[in-house]
Amino acid sequence: MNKANILLAGVGGQGIILASRIIGNTALMNSYDVKLSEVHGMAQRGGSVISSVKMGEKVYSPIIEKQEADIILAFEKLEALRWIEYLKPGGRMIINDQEIMPVSVTTGKDSYPEDIISRIKAHYDNTVCIDALKIARECGNIKVLNTVLIGLTASFMELGKEDRLKSIRELVPERFVEINIKAFERGYNYAKS
Amino acid sequence: MKRLMLGNEAIAWGAYEAGVTVASSYPGTPSTEITEHLAGCDEIYSEWSPNEKVSMEVVIGASIAGARAITAMKHVGLNVAADPLFTVSYTGINGGLVIVVADDPGMHSSQNEQDSRHYARAAKVPMLEPADSQECKDFIKMAFEISENFDTPVLIRLSTRVSHSLSSVELAEREDYKLKGYKKDFVKYVMMPAMARKRHLIVEKRMRDLKEFGENTELNRIEWENRSIGVISSGIAYQYAREAFPEASFLKLGMIYPLPEKMIADFAAGVDKLFVVEELEPFFEEQIKAMGIEVIGKERLPVTGELNVSIIREKLLGEKQSIDLPFEEKTPMRPPVMCPGCPHRATFHVLSKLKLTVTGDIGCYTLGALPPLEAVDTCICMGASIGMAHGMEKARGAEFRKKTVAVIGDSTFIHSGITGLIDVVYNKGNSMVIILDNSITGMTGHQDNPTTGFTIKGEPTVQVDLVKLCEAVGIRRVKVVDPFKLKEFERTVKEEIEADEPSVIIARRPCALLKKASYGGTVTIDSDLCINCKLCTAIACPAILDKGDHIEIDESLCNGCLLCVEKCPRNAIVKAGVENE
């Protein structure tokens, strides 16, 4: 059994907690020891947030440390840049091609860094970029953005696809299951297309 | 069956399985989900009470009446509840009584990082500390047994990383707990000097008995491996240390007060070098050193912030991680912000514009201290804003008072703001108070409170009338205003602050994340009308982007609250005609 550390990074309100729980539950169904760490409370209010998913034969600390992440799933470009030192050398970087401006930028005090994706790609070979917001919109609801990203992440993992779909069914309200499965499939097939 | 569960949810399951029938709490990150999960159990009476002291008194009453009862709070909540805690330690219990306290090392969502383990020692109460979700559930059940076997309340200490981490938990059936009989026993339950003196002797004996228990309980365990290094640890720090020292021997403490001295001495004698790894204060270290045992702890590890595996490796093993990043620039920080449509944004925009001194309080609105609004001057604790404004007036006089305002949320006002307001009236103060009534306890994730008209289970109940409450304590000037009506709100603030008597403005508008806020339709800039005057940026909405030569509105963030429309002198902000999902 392989161990895997997945760091989800983004902005409070993007659906990061639900995404990490779907990945964590899938790992549990595959008999991994699993630990997740989440951020609740004040930091959630539009701030920079991360969630860790660690799986393996035995997991002690729930926290992913610098250079320990096998996969970073960044829901936003600036957050990809912010957390990149957590990526293991040779690790997989997944970036959602979306910009959310921090207040220092909206008020003109800072500028949003340019060319984030091409610069990351230049130094990190295993970088994949996706416009998940566009795909979510095509699926019919921008809120399934996180499920598109889970699908893409899953395509790089050894976990069974059936279990992942089962996790979605368990964790997502029934009336949203169908659209989420559609979003998952779009993400899952993205890297192959 | 195994389920992935938050530490907090596992605490609630443990209480459920232990046959708990009464739970009372006040929300506080990182403890809130415990009581929310308890509220989902039909077999348990649960409630949000006005503050932690009341919660504690409710569960003490339930325990003396014969039930197993639980309360959960954040570390600073235990300060509020400390008064009853110190005396229920003397009376002991009838039905089992467990108090859960969640510390916040690193202050993810708190105003200090106090170490609540000191309360166990100060109040002479045993304390347990779980290290993952399974232990959260198991320790709660054991805590109820300890409580009843030793006639004592039991503290459970959590920390953010245990409360808000998920790991797998094996579930069991609920115990069919029979209420203990109720018997009047004033020698045990009426703490007047004559009785309390007798009870104190019993408390001292109890602590000696608990120390003996600690030597043999499975809560404390030695994991013998390589004996060149031994580590004593507990809770989340144990998990970090276990990863940093995969080969070392461990003494893992589950009962962290009182300490098992014989076990510690035996462990120390069995290893060459002894480390104590604990977050925050040197709580174990000082007690172990007092036993005459040599240990390495806080001379190398920090007393501030959270620990992690890298810190332990670096400080105790000398293995420093070096990372070369190809990027040199600093990424712009992304601190938490008030949400688009937040009613507090309008309030602070006006207070900032009027350049008032603002005593602040605990809630989402504390964010009003950050740039660019920078309206809030102080934040100490729940309910502090009103007393502090009063103190400022008494120190600096009427002129200063006419530039000072206290702001406090609806839930916080009920928690402990009302006593401050009574102080103002009683002692002839003239403070102006703004109650930020957003119809919910916001920061902790939307809990009902006595002003919302609903219980924790969503049942309709009597709603505290804030206007009548303020009038009843002697405030004659009470105004209710919608802060989004910027001009009216500003005028009211100016009028009330000039008054030569205390006044209260209730700034009433629901939290933007509540369904009843019902904003609809995003807005956009009509570039033909916009003159780029940037007045709309003064409200610091995250959806309004200053692009230098023009203004843009991020439609994925805008929820159509229309506050910016109120600011625009040219009517250049118009409905986009696209429904935002």
Work out the number of β strands of chain B: 22
Annotation, overall tally of beta strands of chain A: 6
Multimerization state = heterodimer
Predict the CATH topology of the largest domain in chain B.
Rossmann fold
Span between termini of chain A: 28 Å
Largest sheet of chain B: 7 strands, mixed
CATH fold assignment of chain A:
Pyruvate-ferredoxin Oxidoreductase, domain 3
Largest sheet of chain A: 6 strands, mixed
Shape of chain B: globular
The global form of chain A is: globular
Q: Supply the helix-strand structural class of chain B.
A: alpha/beta
Care to give the gist of this entry?
With 193 residues, chain A is α/β, with parallel strands linked by helices.
Describe this structure in words.
The complex is a heterodimer of chains A (193) and B (581). Chain A is of the alpha/beta class. Chain A has a single domain (4-188), classed as Pyruvate-ferredoxin oxidoreductase, PFOR, domain III (Pyruvate-ferredoxin Oxidoreductase, domain 3, 3-Layer(aba) Sandwich), CATH 3.40.920. Chain A has helices at 16-29, 77-83, 103-106, 116-123, 132-139, 145-154, 161-171, 177-188, and strands at 4-11, 33-37, 48-56, 69-74, 87-96, 127-130. Chain A has a six-stranded mixed β-sheet with strand order 2-3-1-4-5-6, sandwiched between helices. In chain A, helix 2 links the parallel strand 4 (69-74) and strand 5. The model of chain A has no long low-confidence stretch (mean pLDDT 91). Chain B folds into four domains: 2-216, Thiamin diphosphate (ThDP)-binding fold, Pyr/PP domains (Rossmann fold, 3-Layer(aba) Sandwich), CATH 3.40.50.970; 221-317, 3-Layer(aba) Sandwich (Rossmann fold), CATH 3.40.50.920; 343-515, Thiamin diphosphate (ThDP)-binding fold, Pyr/PP domains (Rossmann fold); 519-575, Alpha-Beta Plaits (2-Layer Sandwich). In chain B, helix 1 packs across helix 2, helix 1 (7-17) crosses helix 7 and helix 16 runs parallel beside helix 18. The radius of gyration of chain B is 27 Å and the shape is globular. The model of chain B has no long low-confidence stretch (mean pLDDT 96). Chains A and B meet through helix 1, strand 2, helix 2, helix 3 and helix 4 of A and strand 1, strand 8, helix 11 and strand 20 of B.
